[in-house]
Amino acid sequence: MLLAAVAVCLLCSASCSKPSSSSAADATQKKILVAYFSCTNTTRDVAERLAVVAGADLYQIEPEVPYPDADLDWTNESSRSSVEMKNPMSRPAIKQTLQNADSYDMVFIGFPIWWYTAPTLVNTFVETYRFEGKVVVPFCTSGGSNIEKAQQSLQASSPNAVWRNGKLLNHATEESLKPWFEQLIKE
User: Fold this and answer.
1) Strands 32-36 and 106-112, sheet pairing
2) Could you give the CA distance from residue 187 to residue 184 in angstroms, rounded to a whole number?
3) What is the pLDDT of residues 34-89, one digit of tens each?
4) Counting beta carbons within 10 angstroms of the beta carbon of residue 37, is it exposed (0 to 12), middle (13 to 18) or buried (19 or more)?
């Protein structure tokens, strides 16, 4: 009789326990990558914060040939960035391979906006890995442009990925990133 009473108490206790947060449980079950391209460290800083919030691996998209300051001068039509951005087929080489790209369930891709879109190096990254069937979320930093044109371009580069709406994340903090990340995990 005593054993039956103890068993009933244990069953009641187990059924009344609080379930864990679904977003936290979902996030820990997903393997997440935050990949980013950054020349001035603005996008890098946001990517590092996002990786902490998401419990994600971090990967820097680096050009095989680095961009010195002169190559980034958007006012000079002959600068490397200007020449690349004028040519929609430009695909600068990436310095290092992303290991185990297929192992990720969700991939955030961060970049600065150049000429109202993503730098062509980011297209190289998306076209190289495709991320077919993976959830892909772009994010950007910008002095005045939004992400819409960049997202459209990147989606065209990998139409079989599961794209989520990207976001402009200037000056994002871990606290401001948490609700956005938690919402994306629920989608």
Assistant:
1) parallel
2) 5
3) 999 999 999 999 999 999 999 999 999 999 999 989 999 988 999 999 899 999 89
4) buried
Q: Does the predicted TM-score (pTM) go above 0.85?
A: no
Q: Are 58 and 44 in contact (CB under 8 A)?
A: no
**Rounded CA gap, 139 and 46, in Å?**
9
Cα 118–chain centre separation: 13
CA 12 to chain centroid, in Å, comes to: 43
* Dihedrals phi, psi of 101, to nearest 5 degrees: -55, -35
Smallest CA-to-CA distance from 123 within 94, 154, 99 is with: 154
CA nearest to 32, candidates 167, 153, 164, 122: 164
| Cross-strand partners of 155 | none
Structure tokens at 94: 């990436």
The low-confidence residues of the chain, meaning pLDDT below 70, are 1-28
Q: The tokens of 74 are what?
A: 């958007």
